[in-house]
Amino acid sequence: MADRISQGEDQTTAEAKPILLVTGMSGAGRSTALHALEDIGYEAVDNLPLRVLPMVARLSKSIDRPLAIGVDVRSRGFAVEAVLKGIEKIAARTGRQTRLIFLDCDDDVLVRRFTETRRRHPLAADRTVADGIAIERGAIGRLRDHADDVIDTSVLPPGELKRLVQALAGEGSEASLTITVTSFSFRRGLPREADLVFDVRFLRNPFYDRTLRPLDGRDAPVGEYVQNDPDFPGFFQGLTALLKPLLPRYKAEGKSYLTIAFGCTGGKHRSVYLAERLTKWLAEQGWPAGLQHRDVEASRKPMSLSPGTPGTASGTRGPQEDAS
């Protein structure tokens, strides 16, 4: 166990918090999640035989910290039914609520992670990584349906995963709300984790200004261009007027985290600027938020205009699908 855990919680506080079971696909971030829970005072144990889980949970009454337990296909005696029965026994023997957090991830992303880190998949000793992932998903997939919280880490940086897990655990207060603002390209699909999605393709497109095309929404000239669109002030005012009453209500209802997403065609100019602008506004309102630009780097690939497409910013989107 890490010694960096805070020592201020008493036994009553620890017992009041639910026991967290963290599971999911290998490579989806379980270790990162457990470390994040350690950082806010949890006693974290990983990969125990399932038959000892109720015993460990019962012993946690003598520990002045809340408890998080990591479970995956490597755990001795692992089976979906065994995990669910373990949860029932923990609740019966300790009287404490048990919360199941499932970390999921796209198969192709998992393959890339195992390939890049040169780690061996626990079920791929004599087969390909893809085969091991398929076997694991068949073995563990049904557990996802029983989870209290599911986090898809396919495009989630480790820092954001840490924030989300800590929010689910109620860091700071039981009514904490973690906000993330993201930009994205509609060509590459909607962010799975998005709660509120705003399509900003109606705004004038900096892509058609040759001086702005190489830049992105974090650059001042692009920001000036977007905010000078005649419809921008009304849109942003309406957006903030919508969010102002929503955020405290989300918090009061116990929502742990909220992701606000802005999309444009290429995910490079308009959506990036809106995400930057809203994050700044949220901070001014006392709602600090995480910020990520999902597709801005992918949008840096060179693009060419079709013959006859205007090279200056006319405010009209042309037929080219790669326009930002």
Automatic annotation (TrEMBL):
Domain of life: Bacteria
Annotated ATP binding sites: 24-31
Region described as Disordered: spans on this chain: 295-324
Alphabetical UniProt keywords: ATP-binding, GTP-binding, Nucleotide-binding
Domain RapZ-like N-terminal: start-end pairs: 19-170
Biased composition (Polar residues): 306-317
Positions bound to GTP: 72-75
Record domain RapZ C-terminal: where: 177-297
Record keyword Metal-binding present: no
UniProt name for this protein: RNase adapter RapZ
Organism: Lacibacterium aquatile
